Amino acid sequence: MGRSPRIAVVGSANVDLTTFVHRFPKPGETVFGKEFHLGFGGKGANQAVAARRCNADVLMVARVGDDLFGPATIEHLKAEGVDTAHVQAIPNTSSGVAPILVDETGQNSILVVKGANDLLMPADVDLVSGALFQADCIILQLEIPLETVYHTIELAQSHGIRCILNPAPGQPLDLTRIAGVDYLIPNESEAEAIGGMAVQSSKDAAACAVGLLDRGLQRVVITLGSQGALVAGTDGTRVVPPFPVEAIDTTGAGDAFIGSFATFLAEGRSEGDALERASLYAALSTTRIGTQTSFLDRAAFEKERERRQ
């Protein structure tokens, strides 16, 4: 395939602080936890790691705090092989964190503190535009300021760089300002938030996607979990079939899909081939526990794909 594809991720980097408890504490109550896990996350960082493990050269543009988690996040990304030259620590600011409580039934309670992620401004993107212009694809999410997302889309469009937007967490958006993305890739709930209609089946997803196309989007891929994905464009809609796996943890599967899809496309593969591969890559991530820890490297992925042929 020649040189490795170049992927730039402009987005979030968080630290997940997960505590497993017998039950949630009542207001004012202290309870003992069973286990504690610290993990590196944030949708931007997750997608960067997925792309890197698929053998892309990955540049990340992000902000972390000057607390204990900031340097640890940067070192973690470096260890994964991600270019962190534009991941900067902001003085007197906390890193993005997500304290998570999980009870014995699997129910969770999550509090997200955006911290330094909320300080990644359009001007910061302009400062690294020279590096971004070298990318084959720019990936964005919604855990940084919306104005920064809109600005980066416009920058990518003006320079003919493929741009993928994962509109997560789901929220209403100014569709005129995201019309320049090559691919909008939401899940069902995110598609509902943007499209304003319920998405509970592939038929609903098709109606929602067509509605978004009618409102100016170029191409929409709605991920449907165990039901696969639906892709819609001017050539119509179709479902990308799922791959049967024994899923044990679906956390991060959407990020695995997007990071791998961007890489496969940037390698020059057809959209259909890239979607099929990304669907398998995401499915395989659900067979392992964790988020970034569940993402396969390229050799392991290709081996599993060949086994399934």
Question: How would you describe this protein?
Answer:
- Helix 1 (43-53) crosses helix 9 (253-266) and helix 9 packs antiparallel against helix 10 (271-285).
- This protein has 309 residues and is of the alpha/beta class.
- Strands 5-4-1-8-9-10 form a six-stranded parallel β-sheet, sandwiched between helices. It has a four-stranded mixed β-sheet with strand order 3-2-6-7. Strands 11-12-13 form a three-stranded antiparallel β-sheet, with helices on both faces.
- The chain has helices spanning 43-53, 69-80, 122-127, 129-132, 146-158, 175-178, 188-195, 202-214, 253-266, 271-285, 298-308, and strands at residues 6-10, 14-21, 33-41, 57-65, 83-90, 96-102, 108-110, 137-140, 162-165, 183-184, 220-223, 229-233, 236-240.
- The mean pLDDT is 94.
- It is 36% helix and 24% strand.
- It has eleven helices and 13 strands.
- It starts with 5 loop residues before the first strand and ends with a helix.
- The longest helix has 15 residues, at 271-285.
- The chain is globular and about 55 Å long.
- Strand 9 (162-165), helix 6 (175-178) and strand 10 form a beta-alpha-beta unit.
